What does this fold into?
Amino acid sequence: MVIVEINNASASAKIALQGAHIFHYSRKGEKPLLWLSEISDFEVGKAIRGGIPVCWPSFGMNNPNLPQHGFARTALFEHTSTKELDANTTEVILILKHSEATLTLWPYKFELELKVTVSDKLTMELTTKNIDDKTFKITQALHTYFPVSHISDAKVKGLDKKPFLDALTNEQLTQSGDVVFEEEVDRVYQEVNSEILLTDKDRTIHINNEGSSSVVIWNPWIEKGKRMSAMRDEAYKDFVCIESANAFDDFRLVEPGKTHTLKATIY
Ligand code: BG6
It folds into this structure.
């Protein structure tokens, strides 16, 4: 698998061209900010388990005609530029364009760009451009796997009183207090427009999203964890996914010639 490796004065990162998949980011002298399964395959055609899969042009099974989480996470992006903006900041651009294969799956001409800025923060700007003559609908996510000291220490703050869809029961509920993990969690929070924090014993991770009002919180817990591909049975204890999304009702319509950008900044 071809990867882009970045090392500057403030941080390091690794991005696979398959899926524009960031699978490592850490600030100098700090622990990695992304969780990566030790037994992930790194096999062509299979999504890497961990890091930040790009789910596009459909989140989950939001478009039942497409594979789960769309096709971008296993598609080969083109690495179009790397710029050293200063000693602490590197910008990488990766692009995916429609092809015969994507047009068969999804009949629209598009250009999808992921701009990754690696500094003391990790910033991702996922821009969808419609170069077709018909409007299309997208749902999507930057499906970030964050490592935690232990799942029972993890708390997600910033979602108190937010409505959410519990994807396990299909119920529409309202959050009360912090999100904690004592069982399988698979939820789509709505109307999210401020910073989210993930805390555990050792640190606080900040997540800021733009161009999005939905956030998916996911941990497979014990039973689903055992069924997941490329993941040890016990791995559910080690991570929480906080996904910067446009999912379900937060879909976006992109008109011909127009763009939509989903931006996430984490540190
Ligand atoms: C999450 C979904 O976004 O991704 C979960 O909400 C799903 O339901 C998880 O299990 C992982 O999906 P996949 O396709 O990478 O195994």
About this structure: Residues 134 and 256 are 6 Å apart (CA to CA).
